[in-house]
Amino acid sequence: MTKIKAFKGFRPLPEIAQQVASRPYDVSNRQETKAAAEGNPYSFFNVIRAEINFPDSLSPYDEQVYQQAKNNFNKLVAEGVFVQDNSDCLYIYAQTMNGRQQIGLVTGTSIDDYQNDVIKKHEYTRPAKEQDRINHITTTRLHTGPVLMAYPQVADIDDVVNEIIATPSTYDFTASDGIQHTFWVVRNEETVAELVRLFAETVPAIYIADGHHRAASSTKVGLACRTANEQHTGEEEYNFFLSVLFPDNQLAIMDYNRVVRDLNGLDVATFLEKIQADFEVKPYTDGAFKPQKKHEFGLYLHGKWYCLTAKAHTHHADHPIKSLDIAILSDYLIAPVLGITDQRRDERIDFVGGIRGLGELEKRVDSGEMKLAFSIYPVSIQQLLAVADSGEVMPPKSTWFEPKLRSGLVVHQF
Prior knowledge:
By secondary structure, this protein is α+β, with helices and mostly antiparallel strands. The protein has 13 helices and 21 strands. The chain has helices spanning 17-20, 30-37, 45-48, 63-78, 111-115, 127-140, 155-165, 189-202, 212-228, 268-275, 325-334, 358-366, 381-390, and strands at residues 4-5, 10-12, 82-84, 90-97, 100-110, 119-120, 142-143, 147-151, 171-174, 180-186, 206-210, 240-247, 253-254, 256-260, 279-284, 296-301, 304-310, 349-353, 372-376, 400-401, 412-413.
């Protein structure tokens, strides 16, 4: 069953929490990050993306960057911007986007659960990206960015959480993107113990939704700390990493679309003819085409939109991976027709999160940067859980979660 742990979090003062909170470290490039933090000395980007404090010529993976991250956090603590809770707490973090709310429990999650597959994964990690976070965590001794996880909804847990959110919150602000962030500190020892007990007794597994690299890196750092500590007990803070756990019925996944640089040597007419072996192809003239159901895809090519419908022989309803629309598109079009067999490494393909809208697909094709784009029906949370339970992994860039968790509202030190 699932082990969670309360901890003495470092948190910003309520009056400057909005200035501190930043989007995750990996959703913006260097220039976008620098622009977002400009003129705001409290921005948590100075901790999670400290390369913005250096000339662009310095690698973001330079040792100086990680040391600067540590220094920047220590400075925020010294200035009283961040204060550590004096007792072990859990935290509740609610986000509201376009009228939809999701309410998560902020906690320490166990590296043993990660090792033993109580924490389930659905994605491979990339070594370079993993090493970056290992260096950051090792140098700062902090878990700065929470891992977003899902758990099978439990009514008794809902009841406890609902009692907490009926009380006054510690933070409550609406960010510039219109997303509301509300945060509660759970100090009551009995309430903390009840939540720990409920997860241990009623939640058989939790599922990484967003943050595979953070979870993997935190686990590797924790294991290294174990090796170095001759008095290791298993309860040290390095045995746990920062996570926000949401009931599965509250999370929503957005589409994660594709753009491709060329037609693999084909002309437009030949390309359209070849894909008709596995897809029904119909021109679409009513603006951009957003798929409304499974096995339906949008294609933007040569200034025109098409609706593609996968033919029956491509459907594999009984297989957790082959039943996914992105797998169908990959197996019957992207690989055999466009010649892209490794989407994780092939530079001819790129990925566009659904939050950017279909206009971003048109923009990248119309600019000449890309030749064609695909809009894809989003994966469901049930499909994601089924893949994780099967021990398989999702195709690259299959899920885009919104809203993104803000970093900096609470930090876990070990």
